[in-house]
Design brief:
Chain lengths: ~525, ~160
């Protein structure tokens, strides 16, 4: 039998299909396809897809570094109430090793991704260390993190069926998973629990406010849900009001920001954007502003073509006394099946109180030059405030000083950077951290940074490979997904999940991998980052 | 990194570029996603490259760019067998266990091992194409070889 290389060449030479360059030039091969349409099915499950999607940001590296120095020196009042954890936290004596360690591993975290991408300035690189794996983080995923409670509070989901997940830490290294009846799903018609997940959390002067969805899968019903806690340890839950006339009990919350009257939570209600406002986190009012729905003209024009149109709200931020929401409008066949989206256009709304929203006219949003995947249009997937203006990312990067006039930046500077930006239906992370922008667009595999307001981007960390090379060389495959990054002022804290391939035998408490065979498990994951020029 | 011809018209330059790089891109996509999906994705990607040739031709690594475009097309293409049986005529001498063993590899492992072991590309060349670090290519290749050795029951795979 010939050697392996020859056999591989024989096989692939026999099946590979090549196109004739003349046919390509003459347009005789199939035309490019458009971006992936919004996934069909239970729409409020999309964040789960985001979290457990396999491809993505595999940062990471050596666990077990103590991270006590990442938090402000002022001890929160409730710190002393935190029970000792039995997890394998690294010894405090290693606290001082963080700067040196990050320097030592920088070369494994900053490899370039494609030569068309601007080179990363070495002085601006970030390095990351994954917090040591521990039992409290097993079988879960983290959607968001904030400073609060005993130090840090992370939220997400755990297990199957999905329970809401909350983790707290006083030092960033040792994490405790909080148990509460408020985290169990609502009982379904057969007596089993439905699914719950928390997708965002903010800290306020009176405590923590978390938002997500409580879903009864069997009834195909979802409730926009808020969880409240004074300290990160004790939690209560309430369902938000929804518009029964549109779609009974089909609502979900994807995010919450401090702004407007106090708090603004956003997600979907029925089949379109849903935004709720509150002064205290307990009483919420659903916005009924007609600007959150397609206009009559848009509906009519679509119907004339036998099509339907819809609005998608992807992110909300607050800055300069204004709330800014971004998303996109779709035009496609009314069945909403994959492949049927025919047109996309970016959307921006602004509001001062969270209830009255103005949709920015389309001509106030310039579009980038055509780029890969833009055949069907452009989308905005994330927005942030940078103290000098707003920045939105998606398939394109836009800036605005006032939230009402948006300028698309030169696409040649970032079209490779955000090549996954076409993937509509998933929110992107974008944030201003220590004066620099950072962004991650699922299912991309790079955490991007910009130090010029979004004009030029460079890969701050490549997430492919480091985890396996350094930590678990025996693990066949692993992926990590990044969902949010915050700055404590002393360090960056990234959260998400790490997916491990467990083999071909079902170990229980796992799900089929997104591959031909095998089972995977997701663990909640935290990484600590440092700017190398600090 | 492919050096593009700097003389002649755009059609000539694109044709030279495609002849130089298409096989590599197609093999990488085929190894990862199967011949049917790869054929469509490769054609789409080079079509896109031609439509934007003014810009693509100025890129430092146009082959890697085209691969990324092709890879992005795959999710839109209908599922197809990743490892269909080879054509029966002519019948190459392929170990019957090879295809089941390849099926156990991740797409990136398959691409790495096929391009390096099957076609003799260096890890740096494969890294340029796939947009990953050469050490990642070596790691994926080594893992693939270890798995293949076990599945094929040989020690010198």
């Amino acid at each position: 039998m010939p050697d392996l290389g020859i056999q591989l060449r024989w096989y692939y030479d026999s099946v590979v299909v090549l196109a004739n360059p003349a046919d390509v030039i003459a347009g005789r091969v199939r035309p490019p396809v458009g971006p992936e349409p919004e996934a069909a099915g239970r729409w409020w499950r999309r964040p789960v897809v985001v979290v457990v999607a396999a491809a993505a940001l595999t940062l990471v590296l050596i666990g077990g570094i103590a991270l006590l120095s990442i938090l402000p020196s002022e001890e929160p009042a409730v710190t002393t109430t935190m029970a000792p954890t039995t997890t394998a936290a690294p010894p405090p004596s290693t606290t001082t090793t963080l700067p040196g360690t990050t320097t030592a591993i920088s070369s494994t975290t900053t490899t370039s991704v494609a030569s068309t991408i601007p080179a990363m300035p070495a002085s601006l690189a970030t390095t990351w260390q994954r917090v040591q794996e521990q039992s409290a983080l097993e079988n879960g995923w983290i959607a968001a993190v904030t400073e609060g409670g005993p130090g840090l509070v992370a939220v997400g989901g755990t297990g199957r069926p999905i329970d809401a997940g909350v983790w707290v830490s006083s030092d960033g290294a040792a994490w405790e998973r909080i148990s509460s009846d408020a985290f169990r799903g609502t009982e379904q018609r057969d007596g089993t629990d439905g699914d719950q997940q928390i997708l965002d959390v903010v800290a306020t002067s009176s405590g923590l406010v978390a938002v997500g969805v409580d879903e009864m899968v069997q009834q195909e019903v979802g409730h926009a849900t808020v969880w409240l806690s004074p300290d990160g340890r004790t939690w209560s839950r309430l369902h938000l009001p929804h518009d029964d006339s549109v779609s009974p009990s089909n609502s979900a919350l994807f995010g919450v920001v401090v702004g407007g009257p106090g708090l603004v939570a956003w997600g979907e209600d029925g089949n379109g954007p849903g935004i709720w406002a509150s002064t205290d986190g307990r009483a919420w009012t659903l916005s009924t502003d007609p600007d959150l729905a397609p206009t009559g003209e848009e509906i009519t024009l679509a119907e004339q073509e036998g099509l339907c149109t819809g609005l998608n709200l992807m992110d909300v931020t607050a800055g300069n006394g204004l709330l800014v929401a971004v998303g996109y409008r779709t035009v496609g066949t009314c069945e909403g099946m994959p492949g049927d989206t025919l047109g996309l256009s970016p959307l921006v709304w602004v509001s001062e109180d969270g209830l009255a929203w103005d949709r920015i006219p389309q001509d106030a949003i310039t579009l980038p030059a055509p780029m890969p995947y833009s055949d069907w249009g452009f989308v905005m997937r994330g927005v942030t405030w940078t103290n000098t203006g707003f920045v939105a990312v998606g398939l394109g990067v836009w800036v605005s000083e006032d939230g009402r006039q948006w300028e698309a930046l030169d696409a040649t500077l970032y079209e490779s950077t955000f090549s996954s930006g076409w993937a509509i239906g998933e929110s992107a992370f974008v944030g201003d951290l220590d004066g620099r922008l950072m962004a991650a667009l699922p299912p991309g595999d790079v955490l991007w940074a910009s130090d010029d307001g979004g004009v030029g981007w460079y890969p701050s960390a490549e997430f492919d490979g480091g985890y396996l090379e350094v930590l678990e060389p025996s693990t066949p495959e692993a992926h990590a997904t990044l969902t949010e990054v915050i700055s404590t002022g002393q360090a960056l804290v990234a959260v998400g999940s790490a997916v491990q391939y467990l083999g071909t035998d079902d170990p229980g408490n796992a799900w089929p991998c997104n591959r031909a065979e095998g089972w995977c498990r997701s663990d909640a994951a935290i990484w600590i980052g440092q700017w190398n020029d600090d | 990194v492919t050096a593009l011809p700097r003389t002649g018209g755009p059609e000539e330059a694109f044709t030279a570029f495609m002849r130089e790089t298409q096989h590599r891109v197609a093999i990488a996509l085929t190894a990862a996603f199967g011949p049917d999906a790869a054929a469509e994705a490769t054609a789409d990607a080079f079509t896109y490259a031609w439509e934007h040739w003014d810009r693509v031709s100025q890129m430092e690594n146009p082959a890697g760019y085209v691969y990324r475009v092709g890879r992005s097309r795959v999710p839109h293409i209908r599922p197809s067998p990743v490892l269909p049986p080879p054509p029966s005529n002519p019948t190459p001498m392929i170990e019957p266990k090879l295809l089941p063993a390849l099926r156990r590899l991740s797409p990136r492992q398959r691409a790495a091992v096929v391009l390096t072991e099957g076609y003799g590309h260096t890890p740096q060349e494969v890294a340029d194409l796939l947009g990953i670090h050469p050490s990642s290519v070596r790691r994926h290749r080594d893992r693939a070889l270890r798995k293949l050795r076990v599945r094929l029951g040989v020690s010198d795979a």
